[in-house]
Amino acid sequence: MNEQRLEKIQRSETFAVGALLAVAGGFLDAYTYLCRGEVFANAQTGNMVLLAIHLAQREWARAGYYLLPIMAFFAGVLVAEGIKGRHRGGGVFHWRHVSLGVEIAVLTLASFVPQGRWNPAVNILVSFVCAVQVETFRKVRGNPFASTMCTGNLRSGTEAFYHGLTRRDPALLERSRCYYGIIACFIAGAALGALLSGVIPGRALLVAAGVQLLAFLLMLERDAEDRDAA
Hints:
By secondary structure, the protein is mainly alpha-helical. It contains nine helices and two strands; from the N terminus they run ααααααββααα. A two-stranded antiparallel ribbon has the order 1-2.
């Protein structure tokens, strides 16, 4: 049963791809917070709270600082949906390959933007990337998940763990392990981002882009395997 279920999972929904994207997601959040002015590129809820605080204090310029990544996230979702709607499949690349390629290109560009006065521009670019990623990759092993934030994953994993124990259901326990594995990868990515932000702050984003590239190649490899099997 489990093997048959795994065979039906799309290549973009494998645990390996989800884990790599979670590493990149954690990395980006740590990087923008430590190197680009204490902004969370992934967790827009935090930026919204900070936006509201500065609006209440009538600090308009500072409020705008947090509004920018929120609007970039909005734009990223629109772009991801646009890629999905316009790409007709066919050929080597799936629409998710296109989205991930856009993410890699934008992060590579952002890595060459100097720190300091241009930090808001980098936060905009990284927030855009995170939005494209979270909108494009929405499942792991057939289960809804997010690769750029952990609250929903923690809720879903704990819910599956509870029902797996109470019902003695191995499938639910396996689902909870999948969610907790993704969370562990996110934390590991954030730790890596914190370490490299202090060592190579100017080019740390290239590491995140490299992790995404691994996911891109893994998806291509599974594509080839699917075609050979067919």
